[in-house]
Write a structure and sequence with these properties.
The protein contains 10 helices and 5 strands, in the order E-H-H-H-H-H-E-H-E-H-E-H-E-H-H. It folds into 2 domains: about 5-15 and about 85-220, 3-Layer(aba) Sandwich (Rossmann fold); about 15-85. The protein has helices at about 15-30, 35-45, 50-60, 65-85, 95-100, 115-125, 145-155, 170-180, 195, 210-220, and strands spanning about 5, 105-115, 130-135, 165, 180-185. The longest helix is centred in the middle third of the chain and has 19 residues, at about 65-85. The model has no long low-confidence stretch (mean pLDDT about 95). It is an alpha/beta fold. About 40% of the residues are buried. It has a 5-stranded parallel beta sheet with strand order 3-2-1-4-5. Helix 8 (about 170-180) links the parallel strand 4 (about 165) and strand 5.
């Protein structure tokens, strides 16, 4: 029986990956790494602040000023959000109400840093819908390691097999599967590799069908 659904944030709850990709494009252009952009997005999507820093240093050397470029990226993101707005994915927030009516807990388990998670949830007005919020940096290893999902399950008082993960990224799918949870993949911008696709239980077009999928598992 499913007792909790663990949601990724960017690209799953919010239509924010387009904004992030624009910001990362600006970053890679500023660094003169335009040719690395597409391949790098698959590597860094779903990973936390420190791991992305390690990756960029592998390209640019250990003297690379990662914190300065992070400040630049944040400026670009907030400018884009101000100009373009922050849009929730189809089914949000209604899906949370439906899951709560079924007695299912809802948690946010993200690789995004705590400051941005707080800003996005507060600005969108959906923070109160989550029974637990686990931002990036809360666990030793980010996705594709299973740490964030296992940590969320422990905090909610449920077992991994009682959790369902909703994700849009390769790293998130691999993390949910490694945690021993059923994974629902809701595609945003990127397709999955064959390896990650094999880890997916269901792949609905939107989150709107999530309550029905959970109900199907509860009736097994």
């Amino acid at each position: 029986m499913i007792k909790a659904v663990l949601f990724d944030m960017d690209g799953t709850v919010f239509d924010s990956e387009k904004i992030y990709r624009k910001a990362w494009f600006a970053v890679f252009h500023k660094l003169g790494l335009d040719a690395y952009y597409e391949d790098s997005m698959r590597v860094i999507t779903g990973r936390d602040h420190n791991e992305i820093g390690d990756y960029l240093r592998s390209l640019l050397g250990h003297d690379f000023d990662y914190e300065a470029i992070c400040r630049y990226k944040t400026e670009v993101i907030f400018d884009l959000v101000e100009r373009e707005g922050l849009v929730c994915k189809p089914g949000v927030p209604e899906v949370f109400d439906k899951l709560h009516e079924m007695g299912v807990l809802c948690a946010l388990a993200s690789a995004t840093n705590a400051g941005r998670v707080e800003k996005f949830l507060t600005a969108s007005g959906i923070k109160a819908y989550f029974d637990l919020i686990v931002p990036g940096g809360s666990v030793p290893h980010s996705k594709p390691a299973p740490d964030v999902f296992l940590f969320a399950a422990e905090k909610l008082g449920v077992t991994p097999c009682e959790c369902l993960v909703a994700e849009d990224s390769e790293n998130g799918v691999l993390a949910g599967y490694a945690a021993g949870m059923k994974v629902v993949f809701v595609k945003d911008l990127m397709d999955l590799t064959k390896e990650a696709n094999a880890c997916v239980w269901k792949a609905p077009p939107t989150l709107e069908s999530l309550p029905e999928l959970v109900r199907s598992l509860q009736n097994e």
